[in-house]
Amino acid sequence: MATRYYEDVKPGDELPTVKKAPIARRQIVKYAAASGDYNLIHIDEPFAVAAGLGSTIAHGMLSMGISSNYAVDWYGDDVVLKAYKVRFAAMVKPGDELTLKGKVTDKYIKNGEGIVECEVTMENQRGERTLIGKAVGALPTKE
Amino acid sequence: MLDKSLIGSESKLSTFTVEKGHIQKFAAAVGATKPEYLAGFVAPPTFITTLGFVDQDSKDSIMAPLNLDPSRILHGEQEYEYFEPVLAGDELVYKTTITDIFEKAGKAGVMDFVVSETIILNQDGIKVAIGRGTTVQRPG
Asked: Do B74 and A60 touch (CB under 8 A)?
């Protein structure tokens, strides 16, 4: 990675599309352990089926975690992330193949900082959006 | 229907020690790539979600009086505002407030929504982040 400067981006710029490996049950369990969220709908198949979900579902926060890192990676080494907000639009299940996309939606100077806003989305193999996010990051300026 | 009189209820102040190994484990679980996250020095953006699960099984949890059914809850929305980085060794102090409770009619019945806000300070009393989350309970 490298530094990305405020002057280098403009609204409409697209973040590179990233296709992730299929969501693995092991990954969900790993996230449960790391986050402390042991709700059985994420890790116990019979429980999740009885709950009417069809199968276990990944934590929404796993998607938020993955997508926040996608955004931060694009912003580059010297970003200061100011905010990240998401809506979980659809459930994510083991085996789902998620694709990350993003777009610069706005840029402006605020309190002397170069703020760049991005929309970040995750969609599954059926093209359904599972997460819609908005990242706000401050990038260094060249001046 | 959930008890709307719980709007405005606040948790007690809690503390949370940010451990390097915990950051590393979390960073790996969310597929972080930045070296400062993987090395456990700086918490990745969503690490502070872990504060919300420390007392999840406790009767003292701010959510306990809502009697939500774990098999019916989903995460609807989440937002973080960041003011200062969270670093390994930080002793965070935080408090959660239930800021709204409402219902919406859905296809399968009435869905309950609970909105909460968590303010997080570090050991120097400096605000590091605010989290706002919406929990959804599906119709029973």
From this structure: yes
Distance between A22 CA and the closest CA of chain B, angstroms? 13
Residue type, B139: P
Element (H, E) at B24: helix B20-29
Handedness of CA B130, A28, B88, B44 (dihedral sign): negative
For residue B72, list chain A residues with Cβ-Cβ distance below 8 A.
Answer: 51
CA distances A80 to A12, A136, B49, Å, are 21, 9, 19
Q: How many angstroms separate the first and last alpha carbons of chain B?
A: 11
- Tell me how far CA of residue B60 lies from CA of A87, B55, B66, B137, in angstroms: 28, 7, 12, 20
Alpha carbons A84 and B66: distance in angstroms, whole number: 27
- Chain B CB within 8 Å of residue A36 CB: yes
| Test the A interface: residue of B75, B86, B120, B130 with most A CBs within 10 Å | B75
Residue A50 host element (H or E):
helix A45-50
What would the pLDDT profile of B29-69 be if each residue is shown by its tens digit?
A: 999 999 999 999 999 999 999 998 887 777 778 888 999 99
Round to whole Å and give the CA distance between B122 and B16.
9
Residue of chain B with shortest Cα separation from A68: B45
pLDDT tens digits, A89-110: 999 999 999 999 999 999 999 9
CB contact under 8 A, A36 and B72: no
Instruction: Judge: B82–A85 Cβ closer than 8 Å, yes or no.
Output: no
- Picking from B30, B49, B71, the nearest residue to A69 by CB comes out as B30
Look up the ipTM and state it: 0.96
Query: Please, are residues A116 and A9 in contact by the beta-carbon 8 Å criterion?
Result: yes
